[in-house]
Amino acid sequence: MSNLSAEKWSALWSNQTTTTLPSMFEENYDLNIADFWHEVLDGNHQSIIDLACGNGALAWLANDLFSQQERITKVTGIDTANIDPFKVLNKDRKKFPMLDFIGNTAIEKLPFNDDSIDLAISQYGLEYSNLQESIPEISRVLKSKAKVGFILHNNESFLLKGSTISLDRHLRVLREVKIHDLFFELDRLFGRSKDLEKIIAKPKIRKKMNAINAATLQIKDIMSDVKAGLEIERYSQSMFNAFSEESIRKRIDRKKAIHQAINHLQSYIDRIVDLKTAALSPAELGVLVNLIEKEGFTISENHPIAYKEHKNLGTAFVAHR
Ligand SMILES: C[S@@+](CC[C@H](N)C(=O)[O-])C[C@H]1O[C@@H](n2cnc3c(N)ncnc32)[C@H](O)[C@@H]1O
Prior knowledge:
Number of helices: 13
CATH topology of the largest domain: Rossmann fold
Radius of gyration: 23 Å
CATH class of the largest domain: Alpha Beta
Bound molecules: S-adenosylmethionine
Order of helices and strands: HHEHEHEEHEHHHHHHHHEE
Helix content: 40-55%
Number of strands: 7
CATH superfamily of the largest domain: Vaccinia Virus protein VP39
Distance between the termini: 25 Å
């Protein structure tokens, strides 16, 4: 279950990204993950829901497949965040008449009639909901003969293991290196002067800049074995940018830029903490199995799904009734 506010997710989905993992899935879920979805989507479905859709990765994938196959299937993505994938991803909604997105909507309270949906799908979404409430609610809107397909974060997956290491490193950077504090001091020493040569000549400023360079090396060292160094790079780089010659000339609000960099990194940290909360343990997967079976479904798939060199990128789960 998720503890991250809808506002925070909304902020994330206002960025032009299809998934939360753009470094792994540049365009959308692909390779065997896409194959899994193509199999789940196979069948005579009239209406499909993508639960906790974010910017609609799965909904787009489904809609692309149905367009290629010239199948007429309505796909609706829902999410608690205030999403608008058409606008954010620059897609003309008129060209996607069978695709719809509904924001500010929880899986626990779906805006669909009883017995109205053929297939419910979700990747890295269902586990963010309260399963005790969401499973009966999904069952309510699904037709008596229906299917569900999910890929769920589990706490043994590569993503969880990698994110846990990354989280520890980012927290260390924030706690130990505190490069932003050095930038705040540098900002104070710069004052309102615009004359870069004069500023740089000051020994106090040189000392502070040397300290910042040393802190940068320390950060690189801490992050050396973490692949997802992207967030820390953004955090440091945006502060360096705030002190560039151009920024000084333009008198940009350096304090604000430093605060933004801290907030950005904190949001990333919050998301990883949330991911760890949402990821299902074996016991929680057992609870999901019981809840689904209680709604009359028979489970046909419940296993880790691989991706490239990783053996476990989540749990693939399919059930029918
Ligand atoms: C990791 S993102 C996944 C988004 C998308 N399925 C994807 O694969 O890119 C998790 C999403 O769950 C949404 N979410 C969290 N709790 C929810 C709930 N109870 N009902 C609906 N959406 C929820 C969040 O707003 C967020 O967009």
